[in-house]
Amino acid sequence: MDGARRRQLGASAEDRACAYLLRQGLQIVQRNYRVRGGEIDIVARDCGCLVFVEVRLRSAGGHGGAAASVDARKRTRLLRAARHFLMRLGDAELRCRFDVIAIDSGTLRWLRDAFGAAD
Q1: Structure confidence by residue, pLDDT tens digits, 4-43
Q2: Which of residues 5 and 98 earns the better pLDDT score?
Q3: What's the topology of domain 3-115?
Q4: What are phi and psi of 28, to 5 degrees?
């Protein structure tokens, strides 16, 4: 698959994830927050909690699926971007969590509190 098609599928998955989160009552704060060495697909608020959301898409169920693709390396990159986001806000004490939206063969699963900063 070429890069343009991959980006298009990723953007479509993120659109679907945002729509789902909005229906669940979350407020989208920002999409595609990028810093050197990390990126967060979606930043949202859920009842006073800042939620950093990674969206993963897999068209086939092999290799452990979408959720399993959020490995230690990816978590490190997410944590780096989240720390930067929090520093920019100036509120390091803000309650936050890390969620994953996994889309496997079209089926969306929301994994709340999928990992922590200590993982």
Answers
A1: 888 888 888 999 999 999 999 999 999 999 999 899 999 9
A2: 98
A3: Trna Endonuclease; Chain: A, domain 1 (3.40.1350)
A4: -80, 125
Beta pairing partners, 99: 53
Per this entry, what is the length of the chain? 119
Sheet holding 107-115, edge to edge: 27-35, 38-46, 49-58, 96-104, 107-115
Q: C-alpha angle with apex 44: 81 to 39, nearest 5 degrees?
A: 25
Q: Are 61 and 34 in contact (CB under 8 A)?
A: no
Residue 109 has pLDDT above 60, yes or no: yes
pLDDT at 62 exceeding the cut of 70: no
Domain ranges within the chain, ordered by starting residue:
3-115
In one-letter notation, the amino acid at residue 30 is Q
pTM across the whole model: 0.89
Structural tokens at position 14: 């993120």
- SS3 call for 49: strand
Region of 4 (left: φ > 0; alpha: ψ -120 to 50; beta: rest) is: alpha
Q: Are 117 and 71 in contact (CB under 8 A)?
A: no
